[in-house]
Amino acid sequence: MDQPADPRARRLFGGSARALGDLAASPFRADRDRIVASPFFARLGGVTQVISPVGSGLLVHNRLTHSLKVAQVARAIAERLTADPAHRGLLDKLGGCDPDVVEAAALAHDLGHPPFGHLGERVLDRLARQRLGLADGFEGNAQSYRIVTSTEIRGAATTGLDLTAAVRAAMLKYPWTRLDHPDPHPRHLRPAPRGAAAPPDEPDSGSLKFGAYGTELEDLRQARAPFAGRIAEWQQTVEASVMDTADDIAYAIHDVEDFYRVGVLQQGTVAAELMAWQREAGHLRAVTDAALAGAARRPGSAIEALRRQLHRKDSWIAADDAFAAAVEHVREELVDGLLALPFDGSIEAEQYVARFSARWTTRLVDAITVTAAPDVRSGHVLLAPAQWHEVQVLKFVHHRFVLARPDLALHQRGQARLLDTLVDALWQWLLDPEEESRLPRRLPDLVELAEAELHPRTPDRIGRARGRAIVDFVAQLTDGQAVAMLDVLSGRSGALWTDAFVL
């Protein structure tokens, strides 16, 4: 394929790799086709969004269906913005907004998510840094970027998906590394961009969220080179900002939808929280932070804590009137609307859910705007204040009434222990000289790749290469594959064959 004139369409590997979609009129459509044809994309059907697809019973979103819906929302946003003459000049000045780019980036944004969702991400990060000696640790966004640039093995070549610069740049929600790029690092800004700050309990560990490991830094620089002088080094491209906003919208709506279907979200408990705050807002605002924390289980206290958190973190947009209006709108739509009729699996119930989701998606997409000078904690593409507050309240409902449940915590503690044991078992297997010829072929391939990426004088180069290979290997498993592999390695399974090695 000839190199297009648009520098954003440049490919890292010169277009040498061939894949489904190479002959498409748009190089960005070719990117979309390469992503969808990748086994890493198909794998997402077996990876947790919130509840593991293994044994969840009802149809809930997994990482694949979530990615498809993010792509749908992202494309709708991009098409709406590019069709509006009021936005075109600013979009061009900032580097462009192509619907094919944002759709491709949205499809690829979760490729690196490990088994068991965000829980798996936290566990692998801890193991990578504390047990395997990897300063970059693990981060799902950085792992997605690593997959499209280096770790997908295609025949004899290890060239990633050979995506255009624009799509790779649009994948970068957090366009920095954990520790040292760009310089000065965005975690030192006050306030820091969203995701750039270090965890409060590990102030020297670097950013909590980041878009690329140090091994992919040169690729990150090359992908973002066409945007130099248009946006700050730490800012998202417009297309990344669209993808990020679409991810927020899909997450806020579809996770609420899932747990209504499952029966976890109950009208009474959600109503008690929202309506107690509405009745007692004046009193709750006068309560000290310490007293509020001590009364965390009292209805209304948790959402008051959210209001205060928004003012602390996002004072650039947080407003009490908009917050109160958002609580009322969510109460009307969710408590008096969706949750008023328990989900019974009927066609009528499915249509009811679909109307709720479509109504909210349209409302939020229509509230998207573009700004030339966003706050440091925002992107160039953002929701209007009213809808921004509504998304925060919807996400609060999910966190308060799903993620904070003891039964989910019990399940996740078991998953964390499983990943811990699996990483240790693979490490021991990799170190066994008698087993070298019987290792899963992908594992030594990943060791070879990781070793080639490291400087020859890197301390304990082979040890770090093995550590990164194990992290890459585990991150490529589905939930079911991780469970099955540990069962076999621990002798608990009588099954002779497993598909955990064939991705």
Automatic annotation (TrEMBL):
Q: Which GO terms describe its biological process?
A: dGTP catabolic process
Supply the SUPFAM superfamilies for this chain. HD-domain/PDEase-like
Instruction: Output the Gene Ontology terms for molecular function.
Output: dGTPase activity
Q: Which InterPro entries match?
A: dGTPase, dGTPase-like, HD/PDEase_dom, HD_domain, PHydrolase_assoc_dom
**Which Pfam families does the UniProt record give?**
HD, HD_assoc
Q: Which UniProt keywords apply?
A: Hydrolase
Q: What is this protein called?
A: dGTPase
